[in-house]
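Sequence and fold:
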Amino acid sequence: MGGLQIEVDPAEVGFDTSRLDRIDRHFARYVDEGKLAGWLVTVARHGKLAHVSWHGQRDLEAGLPVEPDTLWRIYSMTKPITSVAAMMLYEEGGFRLTDPVHMYIPSFRDVRVFAGGSDIRFGTVPATEPVRIWHLMSHTSGLTYGFMRNHPVDAIYRERGFEWNSPRGADLAACCDAWAAIPLLFQPGSEWSYSVATDVLGRIVEVTSGQRLDEFFASRILRPLGMTDTAFFAAPDDAARVAALYGRAQDGQLARMDAMGKGAFREPEFLSGGGGLVSSAADYNRFTQLLLHRPDSPAGELDGVRLLSPRTVAYMTRNHLPGGADLEQFGRPIYAESADAGVGFGLGFAVVIDPAATKNLCSAGEFNWGGAASTAFWVDPAEQLTATFFTQFMPSSAYPIRPQLRQLVYQALVD
């Protein structure tokens, strides 16, 4: 099963098997109704896989089914891995969270903030304080994404070659310099907005470690954890395992997005710590287990390999938004169907702070994130539970996959 062996009888870890089957029936309808080509889901408790299922095709046109070792573009599920990389260096004394970014990327020294106008003619004012590393990790830096389409600055990103890609020939260092030259959405630390901040954080990993981001990931995280299927592109021998990327055509049918999806098959010029990795469900399940704090295996360690201290993981996965605010109060609209009410943001993860406000089954202290192609994961320390969902459909805001998965997983937990 491609490293996805069920490791425990679901009943032994509090699940009702017949209720777990509701997950499969529900998401099978997504395939049967032509909404998704295929998917794979994992549910683990107390560090052991209790439910693994998949359905549909990884490539409709080629007639290739989803299989346990299918490779998926995880897009923004790369961000937690980059955040872990950064905090590993933080633990070694490589930087302080309050350090200005310009200490490591000089082009960020004199950033400006948008002060009105359009993307063609606009005014700016000086930043009242520097962009700091914790701003990057909490998405409070004032950076943005070109695909957000909410603000004139988003349009400036697109005009300069940053929407779902980067300018030809630009590596990570060059992209960071380009972003530093574009006005910030707001004064650093004053709001929350999803952005290229984690890509900038990836550059800080490079500068601090003296390694390229792919080299740091491979030597310090992926190989030690046995995540052998995770990289910035799929090797030629593994290309057939990569799921095709789909969107919705005007006639309502699934349509391949090969122009965007082809990046998974070649070594990139721009190493995106914000969205560049390809991975398997088995690999990402291992990453979630690294982050789960259990009495017999404190967070930050897996199978004898410790990457972070338990206290660092706990610090990363608490709400860092000022005043304990949630994303609805402090944030700008996000390009996804993820909840804002009752959800704060830590250092690399969204964090549930008020389950009642989310209007969905979950636990206080759960941390999570997803990817642009509708992938998702969460870690629930209170219930000792992790879950992952993989598919390849854009945009992730099209269907309520993430909240539905939560209600289906938690209704099956009966102990």
